[in-house]
Design brief:
Layout: E1 8-19, E2 30-40, E3 46-54, H1 55-75
Antiparallel strand pairs: 1-2, 2-3
Length: 78
Amino acid sequence: MDQISYNTLRDFDWSARIVLSSDKLSGLKKPVVMFQLTTVDCNGVGKQTLLELSKEDTKALLEKLRKIQKIQRSMTPK
């Protein structure tokens, strides 16, 4: 029988940074948000993932998470 497995978010940390330059453009000043996510799979094995998102991508992620939260709350008995 096939099983559906999923990871659970155990912890996260974030920081905001300014990228001052890159190998392609000198003098580039770009705000980024760094997310360090710690997840655990169904066997208890932990994994760390580092995400670097632009300001726009961070806003889009937060909006998606708000929608998920709204759906979860609507499914929770009162």
